[in-house]
Amino acid sequence: MRWQHVPVLMLLLALLVVPGSAQGVKYLYGSPDLSATISGTNQFAPGAETQIAVIISNSGLNTHKIVGSTLLTPDDQPNTAKLVTVGLKSSDTPFTVKTDPQFLSDIAGGASATAAFDVKITDSAEPGTYTLPLEVTYTYLADAEEYGSDVLRYNYQQKTQTLPLEVRVTPDLQVEVLDVHTGSLNVGTEGYVYMTLKNAGHDTANKAIAMVTRSGASPLIPTDGNAYVGTFEPGETVDVKFKVSVADTAEPQSYPLDVAVTYEDYEGKTVTSRPATIGLPVGGKIAFEVVSPPSTLYLGQKSILEVVYKNSGAATVYNAQARISAVDPFTSSDDTAFLGDLAPGETATARFEVNVDNDGTEKEYGIDSEIRYRDDLDNSKISDTMKVQVALERRQGTLFTNPVFLVAVLAVIIGAGYYIFVYRKKQR
User: Rounded to whole angstroms, how far apart are CA atoms 381 and 379?
Assistant: First the structure.
């Protein structure tokens, strides 16, 4: 037995011979031993915004303990990390940490605590493995000195250490819209959207399908929103076309539309890229108006009603046909008229054959009218209802309709006939 251990053994024997006394505990050696790991995945795609949960574990041990009735037990053990503060750094990495350092209180030996950090990975992050330094600052009990039988003097030490956290940036496909233009995209109609897309990421996309989707409550609603691309290499561009409808409630302005690509990634998993939002200009609604003045028709007569229509909208219409809805006192055996193609601002005249009942009231009427047409995508559409103003009048009497005049004319004719008859008879 070495002589160095004699004092310790004598102290232990002295403690053992005092039965029933309160036992104090003193740890001679020990300190915190901290390590850090990421809870969950440590793989992230470029451009992602995520939360990294970090588990800080304390595996520090107290290796020597003394028990005795004359010993005072310290409040803290030397392997406890006290007043722990952790901060995640991101120097020289494509990560941006958005969370300030966090206070975790104490971490006893054998225990752990979790801190969460919000991070943003830059869109241009190169695939690969990066190390994020986790800076940990804590205080621990270095030793406790006894003064007499009732005084303990604590000697605390502060320590700062950096724990490495490995994170991996995975390759992905990033959609970049290089060019976009529309065709016949007007309020209340369908139109085409033409785009040139670029794979601005680092992953080769297999079985890629470009797609457009509605962006929030945007009035742009895809009706044919998928386009098969196939293999889409990094840096490659592709031209795609989609069909989009515009709600009737929209206004002539620009609205958002989301563009993304679904594909098989480097691991063979089917994933969808982060959407890119673009703005598409929407033209005004296709509309018509009656620009001819009110017409005058006569009770009890058949007339030709001429109506001039104007394309007051923002797009050309094709094969337009005007139609009136004749109701009492009007009837019509020819209530449809062909107008043809009308560009914005152009007019065309429709002629309808209308019969007016003799029992009608002399006043101004509004006859319902509408136009059926085809848009640029050959969709059949019907306009809003328009009113054709028609004034009904009764034709005033003339010489040819006055009974007295007719009797006089008849008398003249009879007299002239009698004179001619008598004159010819005398000539014989």
Answer: 6
